[in-house]
Amino acid sequence: MRYVTSTSTGAKRGYLVFGQPLLEAPEIEEVLASMRTAWLGTGPKAAEFERRIAAYKGVPHAVALNSCTAGLHLSCLVLGLQPGDEVITTPMTFCATINAIVHAGATPVLADVDPVTMNVDPEQVRRRITRRTRALLPVHFAGRAAAMDELMAIARQHDLRVIEDCAHAIETEYRGQKVGTIGDLGVLSFYSTKNIVCGEGGVVLTKDADLARRTKTLGLHGMSHDAWKRFSDDGYRQYDVEEIGFKYNMMDLQAAIGMHQILRVERYWQRRLVIWDRYMRELADLPIGLPAPFAAEERHALHLFTVQIDRAVCGRDRDTVMRLMHEQKIGTGVHYRSIPNMTAYRERFGWRAEDYPAAAKIGENTLSLPLSPRLDDDDVSRVIAALRRAVGAS
Ligand SMILES: *Cc1c(COP(=O)(O)O)cnc(C)c1O
To answer: Has this prediction a pTM greater than 0.85?
Structure first.
C-alpha cells in the first residue's frame, strides 16, 4: 500500500485502516480544477456524474445527492409514504436504512435474514405483511443481491412499492438485471468506505421520470428545476418553491471525485476479486465461517468480506479476534450488530434481538476484513497472517 496519505489521515504508521479508498490523479486534478474555477457547489460536474452513473447502471434517471441516507429519505417521500404506513426492511443493515424510514414519518418493520445470504428472507417478509404495509426496503448486503424475484412477487401481490438500498451494491447484478433498477427506486452510496467514493455522496436511480424530478426538486429545498443555475453566468433566474424540501444536493467538489472513480469501477472490482479469492483460499482451513459461494447467475459487488467467528467453534469470540487484529495493526469492521441491539430502536419500537435470531447471531459473530483496492499483495498477506494468529491457528 502507498502509505503516503496515512499521516495526513492521522493514521498510525503502518496501520492498515479499514475501508480506505484508493484516490488517483484524475480526481485529485478534478478537485483542484473545481477549486481554481471557484465553482464548488452543485453544477456541471454533479450533472456529469449523474450521466455517468446512469450510463453505468443502464437506467434513464440518476439524481445525485449528498448521501445515500438522503436518497433513502427522499425515496420514501416521493413514494408518498404517510404516517402509519409500514415499510418492511432488514435488521442486518446500517442504521441509516431505518432512520430514513422513520424520518419520512413511516414505521419500519423488520423481517429476519437468511443466515446464509444474510439478506432479508422473503418468507419472513411475508409473515410481517399487514394492512398497513406499503413498501419493501431490501438491502443488498455486502454486495450480494437480495432475493429480488421473490420480493417483487410479494410486492405485486400486495401492491407495495420497492426501494433498493444499494449502498454495498453498485456492481451487483441479479439474474441479468442490475440491482437498483429492479424496484421503483434504488439508492447508491459514495461514502468514503464504499466501492466507489465521493467522500460523501449518494445517487437515486429510477426509470420513472416523475419520481426522478420530484427527488431532484425535494433534494434542493423544493425549488423549481435547475435552480442551482440561479447564480451562474447565464444571468439570474427567478425560481418558485414547489414543495417544502431539503438541502440534500451534491456539491461539484464531491462529484469531481466520483466522476473519475466510476470510470474505474470495473478495475477496482477485479482487484477486490483477486483479494476475495485469496481470502477464500488461504483462510479455508481456519475454524471460522467464510462468505457463501455466489450463485452462477449473480454478480456480487464484493463490498464486504465478512468472516463468522463462533466462540464455540473457534475458542475466541469476535471482539477478542478484532482486538488481536488491531494489535497487529489491522483495522477490521463489524457489519453489523443487528438493528434491535441499538438502544434507540428498542425504546421506540420495542424490538428484541431474539425475535430476529439469524441477524442477532451474525451481529455477534461477524468481522469484516479489509477489501479496498488500495491493498497490495503484501497487505493481503499481512491480513491473512494476522487473522491466522488472532484465531490461534499459527
Ligand atoms: C453506508 C450505508 C448507508 C448510508 O450511506 P451514506 O451515503 O453514508 O448516507 C445506507 N445503507 C447501507 C446498507 C450502508 O452501508
So the answer is: yes
